[in-house]
Amino acid sequence: MTNQLPFKISVLVFIRNQDGDHLLIKRSKAPNLGNWSPIGGKLDMHLGESPYECARRETQEEVGLEIGDADLRCFGYIAEKSYEGTGHWLMFLFDCQQAIDALPPTIKEGHFAFFSRKAIDALAIPQTDRTLLWPYYDRFKNGFVGLRANCEPGGELTLVEELKLGCDKAS
After folding, report:
1. Is 5 exposed, middle or buried (0-12, 13-18, 19+ CB in 10 A)?
2. Per-residue pLDDT for the chain (171 aa), expressed as one digit of tens each?
3. How far is CA 58 from CA 15, 26, 39, 75, in A?
4. What is the pTM of this model?
5. Residue 153 belongs to what H/E stretch?
6. CATH number, domain with residue 44
């Protein structure tokens, strides 16, 4: 039963270079093995880490970029039920306001590359990123969105928009 699955809280951080290209990591381990994704990671809940603290830590650990809370803009959350059949996720979505200067070195989680927003649509990305994450990033990176997704394997991906504030046209 899906209610027996663990519940995890994480962050995704959208980082760009000076040209506006997005920094993505090709994941070398689950979740999203072999797919391109924004950077991110799980909160250290046992330490009482907040989503902002987690986003700052993950940005420093994964790409070596030191940022503060003022460099992060939380533009939404996605609550995913039964993602890949392994757990329930609550993901906080952050847009980094500080550009990165160079491509970070490869880390144990994967290797990095920059992509234009248009090029991302042709990449190997998780289906939930294709249908949920990037379209909502395009519309709400300057607003706020709350989403609930049923991702149970074998079922149809269903989505509920719980909250929408401020909407930009797709880039």
Report:
1. middle
2. 445 877 889 999 999 999 999 999 999 998 789 999 999 999 998 899 999 999 999 999 999 999 999 999 999 998 888 766 677 889 999 999 999 999 999 999 999 999 999 999 999 999 889 988 999 999 999 999 999 888 777 777 777 788 888 865 544
3. 12, 16, 8, 17
4. 0.88
5. none
6. 3.90.79.10
Report residue 155 as tokens. 């079922």
Query: Using CA atoms in the order 133, 70, 41, 171, what is the torsion angle rounded to 10 degrees?
Result: 20
Containing domain of residue 60, as a range? 2-165
Domain count, the chain: 1
- Ramachandran assignment for 20, one of left (phi > 0), alpha (psi -120 to 50 degrees), beta (any other): left
Residue 42 host element (H or E): strand 39-42
- Distance (Å, whole) CA 47 – CA 142: 30
